[in-house]
């Protein structure tokens, strides 16, 4: 029999950005909060010798253990899915802070267009612009409604940047296409490098509007509204897949978790793997969770007035399906909602690489979010009337740090081993620059998440199955972006240029992005969504499911800024529910 804990006000399943924001805010309100984290506890002291590329970047020290739980994958509903045995395409983290510890720090606000994408597209281009295979839908919330929550997250994390639009007034040096902001960024934009300067000058010469990307790598010393003081980035180049020993990269370890603990109202339990959300379907409520202590093997029941499912996107959807909360999505009939609108990121849409024979760049230095960008081809910032795709993406030149093992920019016709391979690696390591558009990924009715009928985890529970392939929208976007990015690289003066103009079928083998979204999407009604605009489950009002699983599609940006904003909105919904009960 499971051991039973005393009831608490709130339990969170996962203690990454989402779970820790919820815990901090509600613990500060005086609520008793339990945070259940399947991994171990981490602190900045763990990363004092973090610059070990083999351990962290290639052997995935901070990621989930695939030998105990993985996913299965297939391209099409007619195929048999097979397990992912080795990390490749995406990297879900584990341990306190989750992916908010090993992220790069690129922090964006989605465009106003994103939140009303279906209605705005129809208003401007007509309903025929949306293909039959694309279940595109509005989010049920507008950018204007979400703006205050974006501001709260940016102040919490100390995001560095330069505003391009404050209350409708265009600001010099920022992104003129962004939605109106209520205030400037908390800290100045990061410094640029010769490579980024060259890119921004070339973009301007092409009549684009470049700016320095917003960053969670602090540009200067900063104290946030909770009194947390952090020092600026050292541009060491070890952000992605690494924890920051300096604390300059915003993460739950240096912002939300310490504040939550300081209240005395937050109980963090590590090695706690939740296996079921206890659902009373008759009364439409959840009663708590069942979890296993991975160290002792003991099973516990944790009752709670509110359960917050705040794990990684894929884990959120899997737990809903395992707990039988909500109707699973059926791609043949279009009925059901859990698992619907799984989207990824159209990474490298029109990637262009330039080789510079007579110039070298100090690319070993950098930071996870150090980049120049332009948004002229993102969202609906350009006219799609004569185009055969929707949306677009953010175009960047990034300097995240050229590390010696994984980074090897060589011409495509170079052998993959031998003396020529070595010579070309040495020749081009610091003289190669890349421009890439991070494309939006819009839903396809046959891209979805479900439980695998064959493969199970170490506990005998079904694995999550991903059914996914690139859509016609993804494939048609690529040559459009490649043509324009190539002109920017030509303007930069590269001696040789290589361009990617076509997409093969999606492969789960190479790393591309950890921007998995959807499957428990938000919306204005229960027929087309899993949660409402406060991330509250339609079928269980005391269950909240924030995070990127709530995105009905993915934008041309990294998702974390929007995840943070929705987390703060989720907190407001929980507060209202605890006062009045029912749906907010």
What brief labels describe this structure?
584 residues; FAD/NAD(P)-binding domain; 12 helices; 9-stranded mixed sheet
Could you explain the architecture of this structure?
There is one protein chain. The chain is of the alpha/beta class and 584 residues long. It has one domain: FAD/NAD(P)-binding domain. The chain is built from 12 helices and 23 strands. A hairpin with a 2-residue loop joins strand 22 and strand 23. The longest helix is centred in the C-terminal third of the chain and has 21 residues. The radius of gyration is 23 Å and the shape is globular.
- CATH homologous superfamily annotation: FAD/NAD(P)-binding domain
Mean pLDDT: 96
Helix content: 10-25%
CATH topological fold name? FAD/NAD(P)-binding domain
Q: CATH top level?
A: Alpha Beta
Low-confidence stretches: none
Spatial gap, N to C terminus: 36 Å
Radius of gyration: 23 Å
Query: In this structure, how is the largest beta sheet organized?
Result: 9 strands, mixed
Q: Sum up the overall morphology in one term.
A: globular
């Amino acid at each position: 029999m499971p051991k039973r804990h005393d009831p608490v006000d709130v339990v969170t399943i996962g203690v990454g950005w989402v779970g820790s924001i919820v815990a901090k805010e509600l613990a500060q309100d005086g609520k008793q909060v339990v945070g259940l984290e399947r991994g171990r506890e981490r602190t900045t002291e763990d990363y004092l010798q973090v610059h070990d590329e083999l351990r962290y970047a290639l052997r995935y020290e901070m990621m989930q253990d695939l030998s105990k739980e993985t996913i299965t994958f297939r391209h099409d509903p007619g195929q048999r899915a097979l397990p992912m045995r080795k990390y490749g395409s995406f990297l879900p983290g584990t341990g306190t802070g989750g992916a908010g510890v090993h992220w790069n720090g690129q922090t964006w606000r989605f465009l106003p267009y994103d939140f009303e994408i279906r209605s705005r597209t129809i208003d401007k281009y007509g309903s025929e612009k949306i293909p039959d295979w694309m279940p595109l839908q509005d989010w049920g919330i507008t950018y204007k409604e979400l703006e205050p929550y974006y501001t709260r997250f940016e102040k919490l994390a100390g995001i560095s940047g330069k505003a391009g639009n404050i209350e409708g007034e265009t600001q010099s040096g920022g992104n003129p296409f962004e939605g109106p902001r209520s205030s400037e960024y908390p800290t100045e934009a990061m410094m640029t490098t010769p490579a980024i300067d060259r890119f921004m000058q070339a973009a301007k010469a092409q009549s684009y509007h470049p700016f320095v990307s917003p960053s969670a790598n602090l540009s200067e010393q900063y104290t946030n509204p909770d009194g947390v003081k952090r020092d600026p980035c050292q541009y060491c180049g070890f952000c992605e897949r690494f924890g920051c020993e300096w604390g300059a990269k915003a993460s739950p370890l240096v912002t939300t978790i310490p504040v939550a603990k300081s209240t005395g109202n937050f109980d963090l339990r590590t090695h706690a793997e939740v296996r079921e959300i206890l659902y009373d379907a008759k009364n439409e409520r959840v009663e708590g969770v069942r979890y296993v202590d991975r160290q002792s093997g003991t099973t516990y029941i944790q009752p709670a007035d509110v359960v917050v499912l705040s794990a990684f996107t894929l884990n959120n959807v899997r737990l809903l399906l395992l707990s039988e909360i909500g109707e699973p999505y059926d791609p043949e009939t279009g009925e059901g909602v859990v698992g619907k609108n799984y989207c990824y990121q159209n990474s490298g849409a029109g990637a262009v690489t330039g080789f510079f024979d007579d110039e070298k760049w100090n690319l070993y230095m950098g930071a996870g979010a150090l980049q120049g960008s332009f948004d002229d081809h993102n969202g609906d910032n350009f006219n799609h009337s004569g185009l055969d795709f929707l949306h677009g993406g953010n175009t960047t030149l990034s300097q995240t740090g050229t590390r010696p093992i994984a980074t090897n920019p060589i011409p495509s016709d170079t052998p993959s081993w031998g003396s020529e391979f070595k010579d070309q690696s040495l020749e081009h390591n610091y003289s190669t620059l890349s421009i890439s558009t991070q494309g939006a990924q819009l839903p396809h009715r046959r891209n979805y998440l479900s439980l695998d009928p064959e493969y199970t985890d170490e506990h005998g529970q079904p694995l999550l199955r991903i059914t996914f392939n690139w859509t016609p929208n993804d494939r048609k976007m690529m040559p459009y972006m490649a043509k324009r990015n190539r002109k920017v690289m030509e303007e930069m003066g590269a001696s040789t240029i290589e361009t990617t103009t076509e997409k093969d079928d999606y492969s789960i083998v190479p790393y591309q992005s950890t921007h998995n979204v959807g499957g428990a999407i938000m919306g204005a009604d229960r027929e087309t969504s899993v949660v409402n605009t406060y991330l509250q489950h339609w079928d269980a009002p005391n269950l909240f499911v924030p995070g990127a699983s709530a995105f009905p599609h993915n934008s041309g940006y990294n998702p974390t800024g929007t995840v943070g904003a929705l987390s703060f909105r989720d907190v407001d919904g929980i507060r209202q529910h605890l006062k009045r009960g029912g749906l907010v």
